[in-house]
Amino acid sequence: MSSVRSSSGRSGRRLKNEINVVPYIDVMLVLLIIFMVTAPLITPGVVELPSVGQAANIPATPIEVQITEDGKISWRKREAGATNIAVERSALAQTILAELKPDQPVVIAADGKVPYETVMKVMDDLRKNGVTKLGLLVDQKGDTATPNASPKGAANKTNTPKK
Q1: Cα-atom radius of gyration of the chain, to the nearest Å?
Q2: 93, 90, 89: which is closest to 67 by C-alpha?
Q3: To the nearest 10°, the Cα dihedral for 137, 142, 147, 152?
Q4: Alpha carbon 16 to chain centroid distance?
Q5: How does pLDDT run across 3-60, given as a tens digit for each residue?
Q6: Which residues lie across from 75 on neighbouring strands?
Q7: What is the DSSP letter of 153?
Q8: How far, in Å, are 58, 102, 157 from residue 119 at the CA level?
Q9: Integer distance in angstroms from the first to the last C-alpha of the chain?
């Protein structure tokens, strides 16, 4: 038996090559209504921003531990006119603890050519002996000179006013 077909040999329904977006529009409108109803019910959080000038106390002047390129260690208080005092690594922690006040930080300033292992050993010695506020001093200018060294080419120059 032969089946009954149209004269063109195709069925009466044709395929559409487009997306039916009507259901998507319905879902979008429902979500829009939900958001419009729930948005006024949400209470905004209050953010308290810090204000300037409300510090309870002035932070203590840190003690600076310097490590030179050849591995020599010295320390100083970061005050005007303070000089570096050379010390052996084995006695560094006891020397710093003798000078350290409560809540006073200790910063380590190392030359860029000092091995990282040396800096970490100094930090580890200080931590093991009870120094809690410990940090690294960073040169933000990008200079490779130590903080107290004079720039290249200005070895014997001083900043005295001309007469």
Answers
A1: 36
A2: 89
A3: 160
A4: 57
A5: 555 555 556 788 878 888 889 999 999 999 999 999 988 888 888 877 766 556 666 7
A6: 65, 85
A7: T
A8: 28, 24, 31
A9: 125
Q: Which residues make Cβ contacts (< 8 Å) with residue 118, sequence separation at least 6?
A: 67, 71, 110
> Which residue(s) pair with 77 in the sheet?
63
Q: Could you tell me what percentage of the chain is helix, strand and coil, using 3-state DSSP and rounding each to the nearest 5?
A: 25, 15, 60
> How far apart are alpha carbons 81 and 107 in whole angstroms?
18
d(CA 89, CA 124): 11
Give yes or no for a contact between 65 and 122, defined as CB atoms under 8 angstroms apart. yes
**pLDDT tens across 108-152, in order?**
999 888 898 999 999 999 999 888 888 888 776 755 544 554 444
Give the integer Cα–Cα distance in Å for 8 and 45: 69
- Residue 131's nearest CA partner among 103, 90, 89, 154 is 103
